[in-house]
Amino acid sequence: MKIDIITLHYIWHYGSLLQTYATCKVFEKLGLETEVIDYVRPNASETEEIKAGVVAKGYEKKPVKKALFIISKKIENKRRKKFSEEFLKKTVSMTKRYSSFDELKMNPPIADIYCTGSDQTWNSEYNGGFLPAYFLEFAPTGKKRIGYAISIGMDEIPEKELEQTKNAVLKYSAISVREDSAVKLIKKLGYESVQQVLDPTLGLSLEDWKPLIAPDANNGKYILIYKLNPNDKLEKFAEKLAKEKNCKIIRVSYYLNHFKDQGKMKYSPSVEAFLSLIYNAESVITDSFHCVAFSLNFNKDFYAFYPGKYSTRISSILELTGTKHRAVGESEFSYDVINYEYVNEVLSRERKRTLDFLKESCK
Fold first, then answer.
1. Taking a C-beta distance cutoff of 8 angstroms, is the pair 76, 7 a contact?
2. Which CATH number does 2-197 carry?
3. Which fold has domain 207-344?
4. How far apart are CA 290 and CA 298, in angstroms?
């Protein structure tokens, strides 16, 4: 039996790549043939993303800053595209490229089951509006539609999208979501049987991930920073923790402007090297959901900073694993040791529950 998955595989970002890989591997554990639908949303082209960055920075009427920003982004993107495409090419099977929803609707890939995957596929704010492709509106009539660890990320579905979203959602035979807030939103649409499950990256155990982790690069004793958003408090916290633990700081980043920050820079390493940096770190400091997820899976001493927007993804997994005390700056924060016996017990239980749900959904 073949399942075709639509997700955000094309984002040149470790989390997006790893959740795509993990989604396929989880379904393959159930004996399914997997294929990723190579559809790219309209606002995700390099040109559109750079244009949005110029606006966000306020550089539209500052020609020198605008030019420097565009040059730096193109340099960064060249490296990110390289490690992303290399990873996907060797780890997942993909369809031909679909450049629009109309093309997908007219000539959909052939499969027994169609699946909306994880990683903010139903976050219309992030995706630039309601996108029918991510709601499987291209799937042939009569074919099963399911959702696996879908993330909405938003606190509410925009009023203008409610009717369209509801009509699409009610066509699914099974829906699972990543965060508890998404359960409430889907139920408000009239879909009562929605379930919360683990993110696909946590659906695989440490033993499943070990073959993908690059050998230790002999970096010595270090604290790893993986920061996606500007945060001076995170930097100060890292400096303090490094002194207390007598560790150096290593920073993994895609961004050229992070070379000026503290620590040794690991600039856009391979996906396998990224996993190795987490696995071999003394401690991990991050505002990334997937970095938190891998820190939990690898049983690391970690410290999470909520990024502001879309923080529900991190708070939800911390709540589930009893690690809310590792959200720095929050009321419950403490340095108390993480009870990994409990964390591993929870993850093991939830993996089984997720697999049982998917097995039933794919019948």
1. no
2. 3.40.50
3. Rossmann fold (3.40.50)
4. 12
Prediction pTM value = 0.93
Residue whose C-alpha is closest to residue 203's, from 138, 264, 149, 134: 149
Q: State the DSSP code for 7.
A: -
Across the beta sheet with 144-150, the strand order is 94-98, 33-39, 2-6, 113-116, 144-150, 174-177, 195-196
For the record, the structure tokens of 148 come out as 């696996």
Instruction: Examine domains 2-197 and 207-344 and report if their fold is the same.
Output: yes
Domain boundaries defined on the chain: 2-197, 207-344
Largest CA distance in the chain: 61
Nearest-CA neighbor of 175 among 209, 201, 152, 202?
Answer: 152
pLDDT one-digit tens code per residue, 246-282: 999 999 999 999 999 999 999 999 999 999 999 999 9
* DSSP codes, 300-324: -EEEE---STTTHHHHHHHHHHT-G
CA–CA separation, 133 and 122 (whole Å): 10
Residue type, 271: V
Question: Looking at the chain, how many residues does it have?
Answer: 363
